[in-house]
Specification:
extended, 12 helices, mainly beta, about 1000 residues
Length: about 1000
């Protein structure tokens, strides 16, 4: 290399070295500056304002603190902390929070703190503020399957002299004072400790509470109960339960309690399971009420509980158990098996098993204060009754015997003064013998007036048999508790055998019910002469599954079977459920009485056909899949009175749905129904619930023939309505509503559909082709507007139905000409016009044209509607032809007419309100004669001779006659309609049987003549 090149290379290297050194120096300066400046910045007022701005922008309230200081060695201190929410319900003040975090732990992904001290925290909560505020919907609990990971890996938290005050909505206040606690939080592999002491003051009394706990979670499962070990001790001294009211309200618990309680309890947990529990609980003047007790109150003047339990694998050793109250005494000691395997182990011939216990419950004292909880009949007063029993272990001649007895005796009471009592005691007796060779069930008997059940044998084979008289069961127990709305009669019997081995219970047997009769309160009954149920199944307690080898149900109405099914139990989500249900030869005609009883099928509808079905049910992690592609009904026939039968040679149903009860979710992925005259070509439905809200959405595409469908829907349509025509319609709908509001679905429903037919008839009105748009937005149904032909005239209608109303009503949005030039006929006269004027009663060969202008129309919907229709409008008829019969013949008896007359009803305004139709003056012109009606029709007073509702008449008829001074009748023509001398006749009776009040007529006319005579004499 040449000298000049070497010199340039050296110069370049020195320059690079200088640059690197300069960069390093700059980095060091910046790091040092950051180290020095960060604490200063954090401790500055500018940082304080910035932090508060961020906090107050994110919370519903106002937060503040007076100072913030930071030092790399001194840690972080925040003083004068306060927070007040905007509702005035919550206020928090803290004197100081001081902590010494390990800053390097941030880089490792977990926060670690040294000792953190919270001095004098003060919390004030007022539940009586802003009482009208809507409750906050609780978020669904996180799945227990998820591992809980805490962002803080280590902290020593100390709370000094804390104070919490809660004021309930009823202005009662509880104060938690002198709160001093220590929490040493460590990672799951290490032990976390917690200690807390406090004083509870409220209701004029103060109590002390001490809590201490040690927990060491399994590092593989994190902060869950699985694999956790630890201990917990609780000491409570003279705590007034009434003082806890605001705390319970804050927690959302509907519980009201009074009395004083003291407790001293200690427990140990191993592998997430309670292993030891020891301590005492005592209470005085205990009085507990709440939503779960259904309006009852559980009371006792004293309560003493002494408990000592030790778990040894699958057996619980009861060293001490004593429960004493005003109405019950329970004592026990010895070993209690918790599984089938431990049950068979402790009863081995070489075991030294001991169990002793007794119970004595005064049912009159207990049931009298908790009638609703136990389902007693309304007004039932229990006067006596006792439930007693004991368990004992003894040894005789080298053989161990375990005996147990339970008896319900002397149960008696009264309802509405009627005395009731069990005719015989209910008793159960058990005797187990254990010797060197085997364990046997020497006796297992249950006896009552309505049942006899007995069993016996070895653990490998326990044979049982029993009989139950269902009528006696209902008559005996039904005296005291409401066991359903149906009367049941029949004989139930069964026999079989059980095997208890290796934590498996195997059962196979046969049950029969003979002459079963179920009757509802309104007298509807269903019967089954003979039904048999054969089963073979195994309960595997070790794996928490039930394996169903077979279940077969045979009855006169058909067969039902399940085979090779696996049913997980006790929350077992690892084993998926698999179940196939097959139904064969189901006779719908025999099934119809049961459908009337339990499925609200109209009892006047006749049903027949043979159904075959195979349904697959699978489940995994709480979600059930229900599917069928082979559900068929052959020769289906539905007959409604007065309707042509709905007959389908073959009906096929295809379904694929998913149901999750825990999440209250339904997802109907596929629903199809195929038959010659009714098809659901595609239907989908999805329902989900989250954060207190339920969402429902779906759609259905249908194809149907009204002549067939109306026969099926006849019980749900207005009587006499006939619909015809083939339709293809699609319905879409959605709704989002609070989960706890049962009526929220309709109130928030949005949907779109079409309704229509080719022709229809109703009460003499014959409709032409009609199409109506139906739209629902947020619970408001809009109908139309639409027009259609009716009896050579026109019907115009538009309306709304507010689905939020109770009852719902159909309302027209504005006045409109509803009926325009609609032709009249005999059926319209007999079924509709008789409600307008009694003149139409008994009319025949009626013709004419009608108009109706509606000003107001409000019609309640539903058979159970409590409101009455309200209608205001104007009706008119012209070109009528009437027969001179009935009331019309009576009114025209002195006029010159033929058999038939021409008539016209002049425009008349009427009001229908509270089942009473009123009008001031309805003039009907009969040929050249005017007749005027004034008054009301209604309310209903019973049934007419035809069995139809009849209404009271309170009306006056102004006849076309004038009584002259010479006692002669003179007819008034249309030009003399306003003549005041026309004779008025009171009209009484009912709309279907009108009567002229002739006594009132003579009285009024004599009075008129006398007054005229006196005027002449003057």
């Amino acid at each position: 290399m040449r000298p000049e090149e070497y010199f340039k290379a050296q110069l370049k290297m020195k320059t690079t070295t200088k640059i690197l050194i300069g960069v390093l120096v700059l980095v060091v300066v910046l790091v040092v500056s950051a180290v020095l400046l960060v604490p200063a910045f954090v401790s500055s007022d500018r940082c304080r304002r910035m932090i508060l701005a961020r906090i107050n922008g994110a919370v519903d309230g106002q937060a503040d603190f007076s100072s913030l200081s930071m030092g790399w060695l001194k840690g972080i201190k925040v003083s004068g902390i306060s927070f007040d929410d905007n509702s005035g319900r919550t206020s928090v003040k803290v004197k100081q929070i001081a902590t010494k975090p390990r800053y390097a732990s941030i880089l490792s992904g977990g926060l670690a703190f040294g000792q953190t001290v919270i001095d004098e925290p003060r919390v004030r909560i007022r539940l009586d503020a802003l009482e009208s505020a809507a409750p906050i919907a609780a978020e669904p609990a996180a799945s227990m399957e998820k591992r809980v990971v805490l962002p803080v890996s280590k902290i020593d938290l100390v709370v000094n002299n804390g104070n919490v005050t809660v004021t309930g909505s009823k202005a009662k206040t509880v104060e938690l004072s002198q709160i001093n606690s220590k929490l040493s939080l460590r990672p799951p592999a290490q032990q976390t400790k917690f200690e807390m002491g406090m004083a509870v003051a409220g209701d004029g009394k103060e109590a002390k509470i001490q809590v201490a706990a040690q927990v060491q979670p399994d590092p593989r499962s994190g902060w869950t109960f699985e694999g956790t070990a630890g201990s917990l001790t609780v000491e409570v001294n003279d705590l007034s339960l009434a003082s806890l009211g605001p705390i319970l309200e804050l927690a959302g618990l509907d519980i009201q309690a009074e009395g004083q309680i003291s407790a001293d309890l200690s427990s140990e947990i191993k592998n997430g399971r309670l292993e030891k529990l020891a301590g005492t609980i005592s209470a005085k003047n205990l009085d507990v009420a709440g939503a779960q007790l259904k309006g009852d109150r559980l009371r006792t003047s004293s309560l003493d509980v002494d408990v000592g339990l030790n778990r040894r694998q699958q057996v619980i050793e009861v060293t001490a158990l004593s429960f004493r109250s005003d109405w019950a005494v329970v004592t026990a000691s010895g070993l209690v098996p918790t599984t089938l395997g431990s049950f068979t182990d402790v009863l081995k011939p070489d075991s030294n098993y001991q169990l002793k216990g007794s119970f004595d419950c005064d049912l009159a004292a207990l049931l009298s204060q908790m009638p609703h909880t136990f389902g007693l009949k309304e007004g039932m007063k229990i006067s006596s009754g006792r439930l007693t029993g004991n368990v004992d272990t003894s040894t005789e001649a080298g053989k161990m015997a375990i005996t147990g007895i339970a008896n319900l005796t002397g149960l008696a009471g009264a309802v509405d003064g009627k005395k009731l009592a069990l005719s015989e005691p209910i008793s159960a007796e058990l005797k187990i013998g254990v010797d060197k060779e085997k364990t046997t069930f020497d006796k297992l008997d249950v006896s009552a007036a309505f049942a006899k059940i007995s069993a016996g044998g070895s653990l490998d084979q326990i044979k049982y048999q029993g009989q139950v008289d269902l009528a006696k069961l209902q008559s005996e127990l039904g005296q005291f508790v409401d066991i359903g709305p149906y009367q049941i009669a029949g004989e139930l019997s069964g026999s079989g055998q059980l095997s208890l081995k290796d934590e498996r219970i195997s059962s196979d047997g046969l049950s029969e019910v003979r002459q079963l009769v179920v009757t509802s309160a309104d007298g509807v009954s269903a019967a089954e002469p003979m039904a048999k149920v054969a089963h073979a199944l195994t309960v595997d307690q070790k794996n928490n599954v039930v394996v169903v080898d077979s279940v077969e149900v045979s009855a006169s109405l058909g067969t039902l079977s399940v085979a090779n099914a696996v049913l997980p139990v006790d929350g077992n989500d690892e084993k998926p459920m698999a179940l196939t249900v097959s139904a064969g030869g189901l006779d719908l005609q025999k099934l119809q009485p049961f459908a009337v009883l339990f499925a609200s099928l109209p009892k006047e509808m006749a049903l027949s056909g043979i159904a075959e079905s195979q349904i697959q049910v699978t489940a995994e992690k709480g979600s059930y899949q229900i599917a069928t592609d082979n559900t068929r009904i052959s020769n289906l026939k539905l007959i409604s009175p007065g309707k042509a039968p709905f007959e389908q040679e073959q009906v096929l149903l295809i379904l694929d749905a998913e149901i999750n009860p825990k999440q209250k979710a339904i997802n109907v992925k596929k629903l199809q129904l195929e038959s010659p005259q009714l098809k659901i070509k595609k239907a989908e439905l999805k329902k989900t619930s989250s954060a207190g809200k339920t969402k429902l959405q779906g759609q259905a595409a249908c194809e149907y023939d009204w002549s067939a469908v109306s026969a099926v829907a006849a019980p749900f349509l207005p009587k006499g309505l006939e619909l015809y025509g083939k339709r293809e319609d699609t319905i879409t709908f959605s709704s989002e509503y609070p989960t706890d509001q049962n009526d929220g679905l309709l109130a928030n429903l949005s949907a779109q559909a079409k309704f229509g037919f080719e022709k229809a008839s109703y009460m003499g009105l014959h409709f032409g082709t009609t199409d109506v748009d139906l739209q629902i937005r947020d619970g408001l149904l809009r109908i139309g507007p639409f027009s259609t032909t009716v009896n050579q005239g026109k019907l115009n209608l538009a309306g709304t139905v507010d689905l939020k109303e109770k009852p719902m009503t159909l309302t027209i949005p504005e006045p409109m000409q509803v009926i325009d030039k609609v032709a009249l006929n005999d059926e319209v006269s007999a079924k509709l016009l008789v409600h307008v004027n009694p003149l139409f009663v008994g009319q025949g060969n009626v013709t004419g044209v009608a108009d109706y202008y509606s000003e107001k129309l409000v019609i309640p919907l539903g058979e159970q509607a409590t409101k009455k229709p309200e209608i205001t409008g104007t009706v008119a008829m012209h070109d009528m032809r009437l027969e001179v019969t009935g009331l019309l013949a009576l009114l025209l008896s002195k006029a010159r007419t033929g058999r038939y007359v021409n008539a016209a009803l002049m425009p008349t305004k009427f009001v229908l309100r509270e089942d009473v139709l009123r009008y001031d003056d309805m003039q009907i012109n009969i040929d050249q004669y005017p007749i005027n009606f004034r008054g009301s029709i209604g309310p209903p007073v019973g049934l007419s001779e035809t069995g139809k509702p009849d209404k009271k008449l309170d009306m006056k008829v102004v006849t076309p006659y004038i009584l002259t001074e010479g006692f002669q009748l003179q007819t008034a023509n249309l030009e003399e309609a306003a003549d005041p001398r026309r004779i008025s006749v009171p009209l009484r009776g009912t709309q279907h049987k009108p009567q002229l009040d002739m006594g009132k007529l003579l009285e009024s006319q004599v009075d008129t003549l006398l007054r005229g005579l006196f005027q002449k004499l003057r």
